[in-house]
Amino acid sequence: MNKYAAIIQQTVANLLETEQAVEISRPEPQFGDLSTNIALKISKQLGKNPREIAEQVTDALRNNPNFAEVNVAGPGFINIRLQDRELFDLATPESDQNISDSTIVIETNNPNPFKAMHIGHALNSITADAIANLLNRTTSRLHRVSYHGDVGLHVGKSMYALLDYTDSLPERLLEVPESERNSFMSRMYALGSRAYKEDEVAKQQIDQLAKQSFDRQDPVYAAIYDTIFDWSFAQIDSVVRRLGNQPTEQRFLESQADTLGVRIVRGNVPQVFQESDGALVFKGSEYGSFDNAFVSSSGLGLYAARDLGLMQLKNEQFHPDRSYIITAEEQRDYFRGVIAAAGLIWPERANQTINISTGTLKLTTGKMSSRDGEVIEIDWLFDQIANAITERGGEPTEDIIAGALRYAFLRVRVGSDIVFDINEAVSIQGNSGPYLQYAHARACSILAKSSVESTVQISELDTNERELVRKIGEYSEVLDKAVTELMPHHICNYLYELAQEFNRFYEKSRIIGDEREALRLHIVELYRSTLARGLRVLGIVAPEKM
Questions:
Q1: What SS3 state is found at 268?
Q2: CA–CA gap between residue 46 and residue 69 (Å, rounded)
Q3: Residues facing 145 on adjacent strands
């Protein structure tokens, strides 16, 4: 598109001796392939009627060999119909990457051990992974990392129930079948959470067990902790793979960031942090957040101190230009305060860390719980999706299950609430991941049926061919917009529209055995390739058969 904007800009400069950036939009097909309002933008500074300016510019543009038609519409819009060869150029795949020398770090999963992964973790992980795919279009120096809370109160809650369950005999954990470990960890955390809220004696014990998570000197405690730690990360790694995420290269733990974070906070008193009743507090209320303790009155580091420690660990290892954290919306204000504090501590890195918030995820049956341990586990969701696919006569492969889940989350604008409907997510007749996967497999099937070599050697596209090629050519613009805004839903919307456009083409245009078979096969291959590229950005497998 920059090519055509440059042509128009140069034409305006030659004719009217004025320099003005040209914006190009896509009008409805009946009006042309491109449209610009440049005449309206410059009419005031030139003191001329915008339609008169548009007529002058249009007359000049008609001589350009790239344009088949140029017309004026309304008060001064210029509509352009491209030559067919130009449409093919726009539809021909190019590299999706615009490489820069920037270094980017992004956390693509951060569920805590000692808990079961739930649907909210899946949303954050999928969203972060797709945003990482978009960021990877801007630089090859992208580092996917994860961050997990292996110390603190949530560990204390789980350990309280685990010690009771095992009767302080770690070997009793071996009785838990591997297939039931996720639910078992969820149950233990839920029991500890309820005890913490309902029993003052239990609350005091849990607080002490939380402190023990930092040193784990008691051998029984350590043995149980280590077992559940291993179970947790085996489960996290397995689930993240099933979600279709790319692997991370570095796993950070809160225990690694804790001491460093406390030292950073103490080293910035009173410039950034103030003492309040023994605690070290940041006045986040002055920065659009809330006043928050980073170090407790007992001297222990809290979440915010560890996040500062994590920032420093990332900087020491990767020296990033930008570092992205994707979290639930309820953490938005919290991170606003942590990032503000970090900017005061390290002014040279003031804009390094960026927090992106996801919206609230609900099933069609209502909102999920998260703090008390009563959550909808991700394994349950995988099973429900598989059952729904089977009921529709499909084969619930891992790729199809992941495609259904990823697309259902990514087609909604990041930050907006999502109401997840399982039946809608697995439909192959609606706006879903399996629908697009089926569309790709269908295109592969068409191409496999022909022995004719595809070609573009034909004088002119017919109406149906032209509309499909035109739509294929929009992909690069959509990708650029998604990368600029870090919004994967633009890709989803486009791919769904593209598949619908192909369906219209296929209904009206015979391919195999037609005299235009070679050309139409080429168009089908462009369509298939574009679908595959878009699905790849979303992290969805494009199958050849379904």
A1: coil
A2: 26
A3: 107, 250
